[in-house]
Amino acid sequence: MVFHGRLGADAFILSLKPASVVISADDRYVVAWDRAGRLYSIVRDDRTFRRGLNGRMLEKWQDERGRHKRWPSGTAADAIVDEAAALPRRVSDAIRHHTWRWREPPETSSRDELLGALDLAARFDSHAAARDAAHFARVYRPIGILPPDQYLSLVLQATEGCSFGSCTFCALYDQPYRVKEVAEFTRHISEVRDYLGASLALRGRSIFLGAANALAVPMPRLVPLFEVVARELGARRLGVYGFVDAFTGARKHAADYRALAELGLRRVYIGLESGHDPLLEFVKKPGLSADAIETVRAVKAAGVTVGVIVMIGLGGDRFGAGHVGDTAAALNAMGLGAGDLVYFGDLVEVPGTEYPVLAADRSIRPLTSTEREAQRQSIRRKLSFPGEPPQIATYDVLEFVY
Question: What CATH number does the domain located at 140-399 have?
C-alpha cells in the first residue's frame, strides 16, 4: 500500500509492504524499518546508511574524489537513529490529529495498519536500538561475513568459528570451531525466531547456514541439522545457502549434495580466492585449485548452484601474473553457467593478521587501486563459458552489515 500526503509544506510518501514500512520526505530523506519496527536503511540527500541487527551502522557516499564509507558509532549513531524515529512519530501524530492531508484517504483498516507500523518505528529510538542490539548478542555469536546476495537472509548458526582458521588474511572468526548438537541447534532456531518476530518477513526470504564453513560438516551430522531447519522453518520452500571450503567440499560427492538439495540446499559458496596453487600455499588456504574445481563440479552435478569468490590483489605484485592466468583457468574449468555467481572482492589487509607480515618478509608490494582494477579486468577477459554465463559481481567485505 502506498499513500501520498502532505504535512505543512512537506510532501510525503508512505509505503506499507508485507516486510517493511518506508517514509519518503520530499525524496530527500527516505527511511525504512522492518515490520517489527527495526530501522535498517536511510537515504539522506547523497548519503546512504544501513543499520545491522548487531547495532553497527554503515554510512556511504560518493563525490568527485570517489566512493567513501565510514561507521558512525556512539553519540553520532544514536543521533541518526533518533532522527529517524522522530519521522514516523511526527507523521503518526499528524494523522491522529487530522493535520495530515491525504491525497486519497485510505480505508479505515489500512489506516489502522499503517498507524501500527508507524508506532513501532517511532519507538525504535537509540535506547530501544541499544537494547535490541544487546538481545541480538545473546541470540547470535558474531556473524563474520555473508555473500552480498544473502545480506537479508535468515542466518542460523549450526556451527561456530571456522573449521580451519589457517588463512593468513582472515580475522573474521576468532571463536573456537564447533558443531552444535541437534537439540542445541533447535533451541537456537527457536531463540532466533522469537527475537526476530515480525522482522522475519524481511530477513526470512532465504536461510544462510553459518558460520564460516558449515557445509563442511560430515554428512552424518549435517543431514540432521538440515532436517531441523526443514522441520522448523520450511527450508525446502525458502532455500538453504552456505559456505564450504574447497578442500573439505571435495570430500563430498554429487550424491551428498543431492541429498542436501532435497532438504533445501540451493547454493554453495566457495572461497576460491585464487586458482594459483603457489599463492594458495603462501596464504595457507586449505586445498588446491583442483579441489575447488572438483567441489564445484560435484555441487553442480547435484543441481545446486554455486557462488565462487575471487580475491583481487592477493599476493600483490609477486604473484600477480600467476594469479590472473590460473584463476581464469580454474573458473573456466568449473562448468559455471546460468544461476551461478562469481564474486570479485578486493584483498583487505587486516592489522594483526599474518598476511601483512608474510608479505613484508617476501618484499611483496600491494597493488594500487588502478592495478587491482586492471587485474580484475584481466581475469574477466580470460573467462570463457560455453553457454549462458554466470553473473559476475563485486564483493566489498567492508560493506557487510547484518
Answer: 3.20.20.70
